[in-house]
Amino acid sequence: MNTVAQKNELIFGYSSGNLTEAKSLFVSMYLYLNSVAAKKASIFDNILADNLANLDEVAPKKINYKDCINSTYNQNLSFKITKNNNPLTNLIGSIDKLKWKSIYKGFREFNIPLKDSDTIKLIKMDPGISVPLHSHNGKEYILVIDGSFCDEYGEYKKGDMQINDQKIKHHPIASNKNGCICLSITERDVIFFGKLGSALNLFTFIKSFFK
Amino acid sequence: MVVLKFKINKIIMENERLIGLAIKISKNRDERAFSELFDFLAPKINAYYLKNNLGFEQSEELTQEVLSTIWAKADLFDPERSKFITWAYTIARNKKIDLYRKTKNKTAEDEDIRHFLYQNNEINDYEIELSINKIKKELDENQQKLLKMSFFEQKSHKKIAEELEIPLGTVKSRIRSTLNKMQKFLL
Known about the structure:
The structure holds two protein chains of two kinds. Chain A is an alpha+beta fold. Chain A has helices at residues 3-16, 21-33, 35-53, 65-71, 87-92, 197-207; strands at residues 101-104, 107-111, 119-125, 134-136, 140-151, 154-157, 161-164, 173-174, 180-186, 190-192. Chain A folds into two domains: 3-87, Anti-sigma factor, zinc-finger domain (Arc Repressor Mutant, subunit A, Orthogonal Bundle), CATH 1.10.10.1320; 89-210, Jelly Rolls, CATH 2.60.120.10. Chain B is globular. At the A-B interface, helix 1, helix 2, helix 3, helix 4 and helix 5 of A face helix 2, helix 3, helix 4, helix 5 and helix 6 of B.
């Protein structure tokens, strides 16, 4: 597995505008928190813009510059430029005021209402809380928004992203000091292992009926 | 090497010309400058939409929207921070996203969440110039073509495989390896 290429592909997808809403929000937040990622996105934007500059031109037949000027007068151009604002809180408000849903002790979730087939949610883990060993049926993308967590693969701090797929089994533990808040996208449900595993699998199975 | 240098000089000169036009448009509402910009940009943006598989009518409609936005919002362009063509590209891209969102979801609320999803970040185009030039030098023609097809023209891997007459798996692995190759210039 090559996570770096997968991350680059995600950022390139963002620059090209082919991500769905959930992933757009996710990457947008990633760029907001991680300056290396933001730099990559700008490089990609520039490379794509370069393609635009060198394209074989097709002159439009029905429009001219006068039309463009005139149409600005009867068109509502609500073109806000939001600079350097937190895209997530712009959308759902302050994270401190969210109504979290408790999944089990010390582990809470908040589903972000976007029209998308991917599920995007916030996960809040109290200090020291862990998630039982699990793997993923589809891909899972995790972005640390606050605090940190660690698992078999290392420590993930604010602005770090982890991409997990079928081959990855992991056992994340939230930092003892601050706990952890993550933004997560799951493409399909997670499979749990171990003692609690079967109960949690059953739980996600039942939960899927209420989606 | 000489060719690349020549190309880069051309890009710089072109950028300066476009910035000059954008300033005339925002400061003096100069319609002649706008008509010059239109002649340069509209055929490119129209071609971009056509490449992205939109019909003739729709491509021209969106091209008009992009140019209208540039006329109306030229003062938001910051020549210190971004190259003109990159700014224009992001506007064109965002219009395309809007169109997809509207077609997918007819009841989309007026409040456009795209502003939250696609924000400008604070990176200065000119500071990353070196990385961009290195990437252009490093990637061979085929790799650049693959990036263009996949991310600029938004062709599916399957479509690319058909057009280039290579197996689907090869397309996927070549895109991965191209992105990997770029990685060392991205930091």
